[in-house]
Amino acid sequence: DKLDEELGDKANMEDLKKEGEETSDEMEKASEQLEKSKESKASDSQKAAAEKMKSMASKMAAMNMKMQSKSMEEDMASLRQLLENLIKLSFEEERLLDEFKITSANTPKYVKLTQDQNKLIDNSKLVEDSLFALAKRVFQIEKFVTEKIFDINRNLKEAVDYLEDRQVQKAVVNQQYAMTGYNDLALMLSEVLQQMQAQMAQ
Questions:
Q1: How far is CA 120 from CA 144, 147, 201, in A?
Q2: Contact criterion met (CB below 8 Å) for 38 and 172
Q3: Closest CA to 138 of 196, 199, 197, 200
Q4: What angle do CA 52, 91, 54 make, to 5 degrees?
Q5: Can you tell me the distance from the alpha carbon of 117 to that of 160, in angstroms, rounded to the nearest whole number?
Q6: Between the CA of residue 141 and those of 53, 62, 119, 194, what are the distances in Å?
Q7: Prediction pTM value
Q8: pLDDT at 141
Q9: Which of 14, 17, 130, 138 has the most CB atoms at less than 10 Å from its CB?
Q10: What percent of the chain lies above the pLDDT cut of 70?
Q11: pLDDT attached to residue 120
Q12: How far apart are CA 160 and CA 147, in angstroms?
């Protein structure tokens, strides 16, 4: 019986791993189609990715049924903190890109905003470490988290490079992509939290 149970758990883990990869594929399709301005197709891919994320979150919560209540509460607290930090990063990035749009490149304020952008990158790395730690424990989200963080870091670096070259319009595009990346990660964590809360209420 124990062997059957272990084999069943392994099968569930393989299914979740496959679903995680499919979710990342849907997100990639959405990003590609958005860049090509095919709004309707991008919307379909985003919807499909969102549905897969909900399904993943549900299955992840189901797999945690054997966890002790105290342990689950600790995990939920960690997830809430991560979610809060991601939302803060997203709001801060939005504030910066809005400020850059109306700030002349040859002013002290522009220099201060660039410093703020670099500070946000430092804060993002701290959140990134926590996300990687979470992804190692919950392998179903590892591929999605890894790819999102890679995209965010690439866009943040390009944004700073453009800002230093006073190419604000190009920088703002990268800032927008970084903000979207934070939002995508926050959405995924929010879905997981909702499933865990529903499970605790049972």
A1: 22, 19, 37
A2: no
A3: 196
A4: 10
A5: 7
A6: 9, 15, 27, 16
A7: 0.66
A8: 80
A9: 138
A10: 64
A11: 95
A12: 20
Letter for the amino acid at 127? V
Cβ pair 149, 130 in contact under 8 A: no
Q: What is the tens place of the pLDDT at every residue in 14-25?
A: 665 566 566 556
177, 151 contact by CB (below 8 A): yes
Q: Is the model's pLDDT at 95 over the cut of 50?
A: yes
Neighbouring C-alpha atoms within 13 Å toward the C-beta of 191: 18
